[in-house]
Amino acid sequence: MRPRLPVTLVAGLALTALFAAAALLSLVWTPHAVDVLNIAARLQPPGGDHLLGTDHFGRDMLSMLMVGARTSIAVAIVAVGIGMALGVPLGLLAAANHGGVVDDLVMRGNDLVFAFPALVIAILITAVFGPSAFNAILAIGIFNTPVFARVTRGGALSVWTQDFILAARVSGKGAARISLEHILPNIASLLIVQGTIQFSLGILAEAGLSYVGLGAQPPLPSWGRMLADSQTMISFAPHLAVLPGLAIIATVLGLNLTGDGLRDHLDPRLRRPS
Q: Is there a cis peptide before residue 219, judged by omega within 30 degrees of 0?
């Protein structure tokens, strides 16, 4: 009997799909244009023509949240992709040379990157190139690289001890071929779960960088910058802060539930008997 999907996985996928659908829909349609100012309609409460109200420039909050979802998701996807593209090969290389000079170089390099949080890396990058969504992607991607390298190395080392790997080595396969044909497929589920977790952290990192002005720049909407813009108006227009805050919380919660659910579903040791 095929195991049932964990409740956490279903709930996480539902939340994640909701915001992904809003982001995709914003590519072709939003209730109102987000780049048009309407000062006469500024700070309207939720209801009427503006379902979730308007901001201090008269822009529709629902439209801003939809485009902000697109910005956050795009930054997180590309940043996680960069982290995986760099970290997974490094982890495989380190595991294939366990205990050697290459392994030590890779892991000490990871320790060096870990010493600088994403915010510090973003500050260094923007000090040279200026603040932008691309630089936020680069900073988050660099920070993700050692995470995937460590996870890949740890998972690969456990697979290298298996008997079928010894059989592959006896048959004449080299370390690179074994890593690609045998190691990587066997740790793919581990990487998928870690990727989901890093995706949620990427959403938070993008919001944090935008909040301090180092992420996406105007006129591109961003949840983090929406929070920053609303902090002086929270007493008389609380929806300006509550709505993007709830969007961040719900998206991160959905991704974390998805990661936990995938871990429970993909790891046979964690499955409950049906």
A: yes
